[in-house]
Amino acid sequence: MDKLVGHGPDRRGNGQRPEPGPHVLAVLYPAFGHVLPMLPILAELVRRGCRVTATTGAKFADRVRATGAEAVTYTTALSDSAPPDSLTSDELARATLRYLEEMLAVSPVIESCSRPDALLYDTTVWAPPRVLAIRWECPALQVVPTFASNEYFSVAERLGRVAPPMDPGHPALARFGQLLAEYGGEHKVPMERAGEVMSGRGQTTIVTIPRAFQFFAETFGDDHVFVGPCLDRSDASTAGWRPVPGGGPVALISLGTTVNEQPDLFRRCAEAFGGTDWQVVMTVGGRLDPATLGPLPRNVEVHQWLPHAEVLRHASVFVCQGGMGSVQESLYYAVPMVVVPHHHEQQANAERIAELSLGDVLARESLTPDLVRDAVARVAGDGDIAVRTRAMRDHIHAAGGASRAAEAIMAEATSHPNRLVPTND
Q1: Average predicted confidence (pLDDT) for the chain
Q2: Per the structure, how many domains does the chain have?
Q3: 406 to 171, 225, 267, 312, 345: CA distances (angstroms)
Q4: Exposed/middle/buried for residue 271 (C-beta within 10 Å: 0-12, 13-18, 19+)
Q5: Among residues of the chain, what percentage have pLDDT more than 90?
Q6: pLDDT at residue 348 above 80?
Q7: Residues paired with 120 in a beta bridge
């Protein structure tokens, strides 16, 4: 059995084997938009010699193992369903409490893992990692797969524009505070550190969008590392999907992974391209049988799933709902977008796309094939949009992606004074 020693000087040289890499424990939120950006980071940490353990939902365990990390699966559910179109103040307060209850229910699984040298966590499942990092006296780094927040810009406040304010005295919110205090007390977290648990204050934040896409980017300091999208490039040299030689321009249509059971919306988007020379690729996800879409224009091909990168390499436009994963992948390939947002987060993303002249935005409620056709033609033919999408692509490629994220994680994992290093004896 390996012995544990304190983190000392570099033991490379003198005929000795290199010092084993640090142990990183990653706490994942089991939803595609959250797991997929984390996987390339895990793979890069493994490549650099780290021992990586990741807690996740059962359906993502094989993807985690494929990175070389050890997968430890949750025994209780973390909801990955899309947020409803609207909530009352009472419903929102109760949903906030359920969210905390679900988070705390996965804590025993996280605690079952051996103490890490660094704790990496998706900010959506924030409470257990922040408490356990204090208990274990190890550094914690949070990964934000969307816009980051600080004192100048708050995602919660931004979404609050389209959500009702909650009554601070609501019983569910009172129970929220009580439950979080009880959990912190069980793990011997001092009351004076309660603010760290709520805010993540003092921790490094890895943001998987480029700084140029962030609202109020100039107000974020070095504690926020904007690495841009962390995409799996392992299939970059494979043949994959190819357009018809000599055919027309390519359009990709997808409604993401959370709110894609909308056959009528897919049909309206497809009908926009009838009688045109566009080559249209539509991905509908696992919740929708392509047969339910009925007859579609001959130039529209439908897949339940297809790596979007295979199509975006050739595409002139991407019609999507504006989930951050789709947005960042589209910009990675400098493909402008026509965005039809569904829920509040997608609406914020759509606002930023329009503000930066990276595409166009259409209202889902009033969508018609004619509106889609006109928007696609406008976006694909707009020279200013082309210039801006190429500039954003350059920002993304310069941001560093998974490699820069791994550097930040390893810097903290290898430098903190409480690190325990397994010897090679």
Answers
A1: 89
A2: 2
A3: 42, 11, 42, 26, 27
A4: middle
A5: 71
A6: yes
A7: 26, 141
